[in-house]
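From the methods appendix. Each design record in this collection lists the tokenized structure first, followed by the designed amino acid sequence. Records were kept in a plain field format so they could be parsed without special tools. The example shown here is representative of the layout used throughout.

RECORD:
FOLD TOKENS (371 positions):
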């Protein structure tokens, strides 16, 4: 898919998704999800989390997920605690973490401290976590479903260790497609991206575990991460479909069909590494001539331009910072807009063309993505 095609596609899919969101949004004060969890009914476009800067994405079961989330990757427990507390007091209402980050105990402490400091009830905070793909980081490839269920329970217990989750985590994602080859669990699958999505039995087994945990109410929504078309095809016969797909997306790389792939399936796209490959930040994004020019025109930072670009592509975004000032700027995105010309120029950028949405699989073509 060309960058021009990507830009044109966005305006078409945005209208479709907006229509779906309007249709799904209820008018009563509370809503019972399909798994029996009772959640407040929140109007799309407000976020519903006291902070009106937080717009929301309506998932296929009616749950509203705040568009902007604060990530915790590569933080130790102490850093995770501090960053989560800073995020909540800076205006974030969505925290993103994962079992395999190894910092869930710190995240739990940060949730407790941040909620107390910002005077937030449990219903005001949306929490996303992830469990590893089958064969990765200890998930037993010989018992994908049973092992995944065990990890889901361990994940919940760690997040509940210092902060009262009140019986549920808002969203859990399967972090990667399965990797059933190699002792280290991922290196061979990363090197050969044609392996993971051929493991349909393992994909189905992991998804079955996620569905069971969802139906029990342990998680209010379920989804995937780093899943390509071939992986999603393995799940086509399940009644409960993924609600979110989290993948790498930022200025300069294009989306390689992932936005269209997800929109066609009613899946919310969520971008990680929004300011550069691997989450470390790209000089082309943070100080390059294109983003610098656009930032000056809007009196914003280059990071805000990069984040706003993704928001206007109708994606939810996982960002990350230990700076309260930067975190505050990261949610100040909803009272201004990039122009059509800005969006075209950002979509045409190719300085990160070698970056890919998933570590473990590729969409062979835009046509395949829509299949």
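DESIGN:
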């Amino acid at each position: 898919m060309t960058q021009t095609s990507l830009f044109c596609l966005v305006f078409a899919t945005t209208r479709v998704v907006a229509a779906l969101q309007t249709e799904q949004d209820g008018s009563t004060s509370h809503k019972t999800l399909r798994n029996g969890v009772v959640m407040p009914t929140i109007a799309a476009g407000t976020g519903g989390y006291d902070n009106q800067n937080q717009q929301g994405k309506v998932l296929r079961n009616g749950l509203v997920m705040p568009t902007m989330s604060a990530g915790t990757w590569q933080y130790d427990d102490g850093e995770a605690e501090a960053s989560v507390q800073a995020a909540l007091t800076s205006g974030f209402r969505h925290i993103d973490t994962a079992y395999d980050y190894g910092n869930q105990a710190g995240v739990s402490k940060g949730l407790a401290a941040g909620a107390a400091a910002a005077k937030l009830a449990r219903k005001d905070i949306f929490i996303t976590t992830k469990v590893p793909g089958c064969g990765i980081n200890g998930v037993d490839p010989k018992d994908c479903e049973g092992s995944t269920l065990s990890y889901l329970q361990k994940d919940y217990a760690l997040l509940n260790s210092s902060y009262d989750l009140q019986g549920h985590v808002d969203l859990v994602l399967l972090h990667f497609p399965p990797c059933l080859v190699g002792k280290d669990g991922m290196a061979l699958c990363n090197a050969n991206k044609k392996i993971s999505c051929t493991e349909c039995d393992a994909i189905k087994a992991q998804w079955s575990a996620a569905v069971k945990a969802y139906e029990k109410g342990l998680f209010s929504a379920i989804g995937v991460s780093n899943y390509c078309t071939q992986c999603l095809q393995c799940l086509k016969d399940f009644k409960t479909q993924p609600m979110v797909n989290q993948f790498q997306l930022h200025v300069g790389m294009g989306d390689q069909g992932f936005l269209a792939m997800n929109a066609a399936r009613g899946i919310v796209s969520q971008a990680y590494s929004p300011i550069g490959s691997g989450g470390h930040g790209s000089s082309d994004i943070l100080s390059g001539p294109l983003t610098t020019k656009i930032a000056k025109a809007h009196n914003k930072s280059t990071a805000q331009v990069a984040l706003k670009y993704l928001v206007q592509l109708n994606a939810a975004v996982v960002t990350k910072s230990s700076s309260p000032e930067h975190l505050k700027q990261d949610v100040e995105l909803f009272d201004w807009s990039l122009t059509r010309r800005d969006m075209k120029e950002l979509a045409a950028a190719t300085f990160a063309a070698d970056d890919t949405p998933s570590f473990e699989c590729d969409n062979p073509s835009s046509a395949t993505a829509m299949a």
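APPENDIX NOTE: Confidence is low (pLDDT under 50) at residues 1-5, 7-32, 37-53.
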